[in-house]
Amino acid sequence: MTLYVGIDVGGTFTDAVAVIDGRAVRGKAFSTKDVTSGILAALSVLQERLGMQERAFYTSVDRLVLGNTIVTNAVDEQKYAPVGLLTTQGFRDTLRIARSARTDERDPHAMAPAPEIVARRRIVEVAERVDARGNVLVPLAEASIAAAVDRVFAAGAESLAVCLLWSFRNPTHEQAIARYLDAHHPGVPYTLSSELTPVYREYERMVTTALDAAVKPLVAEHFDQLAKELAARGLQQRIQIMQVHGGFLSVEETGKAPIAMFNSGPVGGVTGARLLGQRLGRRSILTADMGGTSLDAAAIIDGQLRVLPRAQIGGLQTSLTAVDIETIGAGGGSLAWVDGRGVMRVGPHSAGSTPGPACYGKGGNRPAVTDAALVLGLINADYYLGGSVPLYPEEAREALRAEVAGPLGLTEEEAAAGIYRLTASQLANALRKVTVNRGHDPREFTLVGFGGACGLFAAAIAAETGVSEIVLPRNAAVFSAFGLMHADSVFSAVQTSPWTFDQPAELLEESFQALEERTRSWFESEGIPHDRRELYREADMKFAGQIFEVTTRLSGDRFGEHHKDDLRRRFIADYEAEFGSGTAWTEAEILVVNSRVRGIGRTDSQHILDDADVEEHRVDRRQIVDPATAELMTVEVHRGFRAVGKAMGPCLLEEPDTTVFVPARATVEVVDGGHFLIRLDNA
């Protein structure tokens, strides 16, 4: 027997999937503040549905992969452990100066400084200096280390970030601080920039280091608790954690750099969508993952995830390499409200799982998107999550009446339709950011929608962005958990190593060899079999005089003089693919800034498995409010739709853990693996 488990912790629900000898079982539980109890509750649902005793279930698990929100929540809510920062004398205000006040915000009254990670009183300068070539100009004395460490702890720091100028060229001073901390303050968590992100750009490197140190105590506490609970129940395998770059690492490796857990759950969904696209023969895919709190959008181009070398996290520029995901605060639990100008708004605040939308009957009295969908008749109050969670339509109506319909002089149905359309418009904007804003035409993509709430909005989002084809996976409500189980192990080693084409190829080769040695050590520590190991070399390159780089993959194992022309051609092709044909500045000198080696341990589970149980087909008719017109209409409501296989809109497809709305002039059919394929008439 082989048992794989994937868990995706969301803002409202914790999703879990178990695959046992080809049979897939899924379960949901409400997310909790401590995260761990929500995970355990979701695992209990799987255990019960598999008909196994607790001990037998946990001891049988061969693989457990987790997408966790603890880091994402800490960054989004700016709730960190008290962190201190040691930096070079004269550079105390690097975080405050940032990249000046310029942002995407055009309203000068709305401009704000970058979010604060470290209180200024806990930023302490150290008397030391290394130059751009790595030469020591001002030696670092132990007395200076002791004085700085004492000051930062006296200011209340519980963890430390160490980011010294030019330490990526010469890390000896940061290493000396680490030795002092190990000897005099054992057990205090700290992060060295020269180990976490040894690349240039002082601000981004400092932000990344500070964020990592700020979340380390939170992650350590959570994983300690989770590991104890799971071990007590009999789990024998190591927990694997999805990372921001699109692969997973063990808990032990994740603990060394927990900031890489940011957005780990949404990355699982994008990974699953790529694999589903391969299965269905679609290579250009937009993903829309809509749960209770937010929507995460991403683009898969030519079968590949788009990866950013300088990811933005919580409004901060970092030096992390991350899957390009655009997140907006619009989900099933997003609250609808009327602002001071008398304008309807949706989000970014969410009702979460407690108290949840008003219709949950758990004390919430503010209307959420789910309340609007219930008033429109799109959701069956008696079949929410397969009937396991009762809904209360009158409480939803009362909340809409008090907070939106009354202030705007609308009926409850008109207010609900407005909330629906506004939500769909905001979701469409997220898709435009990963397509139009990146130079891609959304009409050339297939939309893969998943998450418990996406089925209600997928067609409206697609229509607004010009997409004509939508795929809703049969396991849409827990699709990110499925994707987590099918991800690879990924390790990325990077180093700033300036190189130009007039220099010997051997200099660049030495940098790659050092990174490959680190990657091979990781393969060994993770116990990845030789036949599943892959190594890729990449270089961050730019034309002389430009600020930012484009990442280019190298060919071959060893870089020699005869590879220079090939590397130049590859870079120009990648540059024009990113910025448009003819944009390459071919007369300028080309610089290699960073060398990077990606190690991939291929998983042995690269296909999406299906649920064994198929519900018997049943069709009813129900009166709903058309979200587009706020007028009443009668539609067919299908359960067990896979037994029929094809229908015309308007209709509703009710699944145990999601509902799909198919609008007028659209068709829906069941395709390979039991997935729903919706085609829109966008003429």
From TrEMBL:
<dbReference type="InterPro" id="IPR008040">
    <property type="entry name" value="Hydant_A_N"/>
</dbReference>
<dbReference type="GO" id="GO:0006749">
    <property type="term" value="P:glutathione metabolic process"/>
</dbReference>
<dbReference type="InterPro" id="IPR045079">
    <property type="entry name" value="Oxoprolinase-like"/>
</dbReference>
<dbReference type="InterPro" id="IPR043129">
    <property type="entry name" value="ATPase_NBD"/>
</dbReference>
<dbReference type="GO" id="GO:0005829">
    <property type="term" value="C:cytosol"/>
</dbReference>
<dbReference type="Pfam" id="PF05378">
    <property type="entry name" value="Hydant_A_N"/>
</dbReference>
<dbReference type="Pfam" id="PF01968">
    <property type="entry name" value="Hydantoinase_A"/>
</dbReference>
<protein>
    <submittedName>
        <fullName>N-methylhydantoinase A</fullName>
    </submittedName>
</protein>
<dbReference type="GO" id="GO:0017168">
    <property type="term" value="F:5-oxoprolinase (ATP-hydrolyzing) activity"/>
</dbReference>
<dbReference type="InterPro" id="IPR002821">
    <property type="entry name" value="Hydantoinase_A"/>
</dbReference>
<feature type="domain" description="Hydantoinase A/oxoprolinase">
    <location>
        <begin position="205"/>
        <end position="489"/>
    </location>
</feature>
<feature type="domain" description="Hydantoinase/oxoprolinase N-terminal">
    <location>
        <begin position="5"/>
        <end position="182"/>
    </location>
</feature>
